[in-house]
């Protein structure tokens, strides 16, 4: 999958080995909300607006059926409530893949499984189970001969980057060293990508007024408001770009042999 942005919550996909063939704008869809239009109507809206990528916050049957035969690339999600059980049982992982992926292929263009959402910061007691869950799901995909079509990753919060600015010296919180090392190793070994939930809004709120509001809203900055990394002298026009670079640099600090970003 190419690097891209999913609107709603913002999910950046950082490719590990695949070449970048262009970017995309996608949509996050959660079915656990009130007043959501019928799935068929949601898909009609996506098609009318030429949306080519969707991330479902679960593996909703109605949405997957409606997305079938549209060509829209779909990321299905293991909910946080499901991660623990899957991480403890290869059979549970196989059952999940069969029920939520295999059953909809090839009609639904499922290309990725997102395992939980911000697991390290939202349900930290499950952290030791996260990568095992991903491994079990990947092995289930291998058994179904789908591992080249469907990648496995897990969206992470910017909160695990303890010092996001300046980006050149950013690093992951050492609390998660073991889990992050295992995660990056898994992504490298399976030719998958790092999923990042990047929210400039929260970055701005948590900055305590250090950064101007325009920086978080993708608005032009005046000369006196320029944001510069003092180590690289790189000028950042948006907080989102700085978050992405901070994540790249945090990943690079682990220095895997042959580990590449694209």
TrEMBL record:
GO terms for MF: hydrolase activity, hydrolyzing O-glycosyl compounds
Task: Tell me the leader sequence span.
Answer: 1-22
The record ties this protein, via SUPFAM superfamilies, to: (Trans)glycosidases
Any single biological process term in GO: carbohydrate metabolic process
Pfam families tied to this protein: Glyco_hydro_17
Q: What are the alphabetically sorted keywords of the record?
A: Glycosidase, Hydrolase, Signal
Note the PANTHER family from the entry.
GLUCAN ENDO-1,3-BETA-GLUCOSIDASE BG1-RELATED-RELATED
Question: What family name appears in the similarity comment?
Answer: Belongs to the glycosyl hydrolase 17 family.
Instruction: List the protein's name.
Output: Glucan endo-1,3-beta-glucosidase
């Amino acid at each position: 999958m190419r690097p891209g942005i999913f609107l709603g919550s913002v999910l950046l996909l950082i490719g590990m080995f695949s070449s970048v063939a262009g970017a995309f704008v996608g949509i996050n869809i959660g079915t656990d909300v009130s007043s959501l239009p019928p799935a068929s109507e949601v898909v009609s809206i996506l098609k009318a607006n030429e949306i080519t990528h969707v991330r479902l916050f679960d593996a909703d049957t109605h949405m997957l059926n409606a997305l079938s035969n549209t060509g829209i690339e779909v990321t299905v999600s293991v909910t946080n409530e499901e991660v623990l059980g899957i991480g403890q049982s290869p059979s549970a992982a196989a059952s999940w893949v069969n029920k939520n992926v295999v059953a909809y292929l090839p009609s639904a263009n499922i290309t990725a499984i997102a395992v939980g959402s911000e697991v390290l910061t939202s349900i930290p007691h499950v952290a030791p189970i996260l990568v095992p869950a991903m491994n079990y799901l990947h092995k289930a995909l291998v058994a179904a001969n789908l591992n080249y079509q469907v990648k496995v990753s897990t969206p992470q919060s910017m909160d695990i980057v303890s010092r996001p600015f300046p980006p050149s010296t950013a690093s992951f919180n050492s609390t998660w060293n073991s889990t992050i090392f295992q995660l990056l190793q898994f992504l490298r070994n399976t030719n998958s990508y790092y999923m990042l939930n990047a929210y400039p809004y929260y970055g701005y709120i948590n900055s305590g007024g250090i950064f101007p509001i325009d920086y978080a809203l993708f608005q032009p900055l005046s000369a006196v408001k320029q944001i510069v990394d003092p180590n690289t002298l790189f000028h950042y026009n948006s907080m989102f770009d700085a978050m992405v670079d901070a994540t790249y640099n945090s990943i690079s600090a682990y220095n895997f042999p042959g580990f590449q970003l694209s």
